[in-house]
């Protein structure tokens, strides 16, 4: 079954990723070739199979889908009028810092842009969106992932109030991947009475209930995606962008007094003291706000059913140890990353399992990586079952590792950057290339 041109054109309109002359030269605007190039043959086959299924004629459950950090498209709608994220040409041209927020995080730093969320990124979420649209009454909720989760939760509150006028007898199921799950919990914490009235349940997919150690490395630019973005064009200052995003601090693990007592704290320095980091740009005011954010979630107890689908058996940073240099005033400290490849202390390569489990939350497990969780067939089926109030066919205990984890030797970073630059310039990007630009997960 061919993919309908309407869907292909819709995807192209959502993405606006590549220079138009490259699309014309390499794709000739053929929607079929476009899909094959961007998603790959296997993914396209799965999309075709999903589109061939008849739509459920008895749709009653309203669902709200919230993507993870970097999962919403951000565009400047006035001044400079352009898609800024996700747009590889913006990265290649060294313009990523057009996304910088102003000093207090309430607006854009550059007077030339006015940035707003304009849609959900379709590389990661296309299959989940199709499945939910066929089985539920789907509402998409793209949001400005740079801003505090409380700010976005207020917009979600307003949206649910508006949408509930069309579903007076229906209760929403909130579905959040990664940061999207934290956004759902923030909404519950800030508006508990409304949540109990309008929300049937929450389904989180790979959401860091207790933060992720890997989030701290965005301030050091020590992650491979951050290095790739910087090497594509040194004008891209990922450190400054991330350190002035209040949301990035909310992804850090909570302070020790709010951290689970069943395992050691994952850091050996005070995360919530900016001076202890010995790094540029770290904001004490944003650390203080993040502490308050974690306290808000810890004290929240709305009577809403919550589920978590967690990835496991992927090499995951579970702890970070810092070693001071002889003169920390002039030389930045070094870090030792503790990684667990599989087992109970592993994770989805971004979020450790210890951050996906919490009393009162039902957790299910699948062997999958963080970015690919929303596209995993088992995860999609589990989400659909949970929206219907049924039990998913995923284990409630961490399963044995399958042993199928791909351990191909990685190419050098220099070669990855060179190959990626060539594919961006030639308009030959695929989904794996796009995911390499995700400078924080």
Task: Write up what this structure looks like.
By secondary structure, the chain is an alpha/beta fold. It has a single domain (54-436), classed as Rossmann fold (3-Layer(aba) Sandwich), CATH 3.40.50. Helices cover 37% and strands 16% of the residues. The chain is built from 17 helices and eleven strands. It has helices spanning 5-15, 20-26, 31-39, 41-51, 88-92, 122-135, 149-163, 179-190, 192-198, 224-232, 238-243, 246-250, 274-277, 284-299, 377-387, 413-426, 431-436; strands at 62-66, 72-79, 82-85, 113-120, 137-140, 172-177, 199-205, 305-311, 316-323, 334-340, 362-366. A hairpin with a 2-residue loop joins strand 2 and strand 3 (82-85). The longest helix has 16 residues, at 284-299. It is globular. It starts with a helix and ends in a 5-residue tail after the last helix. Residues 1-10 and 14-29 have low confidence and may be disordered.
What is the fold's blueprint, element by element?
Blueprint: H1 5-15, H2 20-26, H3 31-39, H4 41-51, E1 62-66, E2 72-79, E3 82-85, H5 88-92, E4 113-120, H6 122-135, E5 137-140, H7 149-163, E6 172-177, H8 179-190, H9 192-198, E7 199-205, H10 224-232, H11 238-243, H12 246-250, H13 274-277, H14 284-299, E8 305-311, E9 316-323, E10 334-340, E11 362-366, H15 377-387, H16 413-426, H17 431-436
Parallel strand pairs: 1-5, 1-6, 6-7, 7-8, 8-11
Antiparallel strand pairs: 2-3, 2-4, 9-10
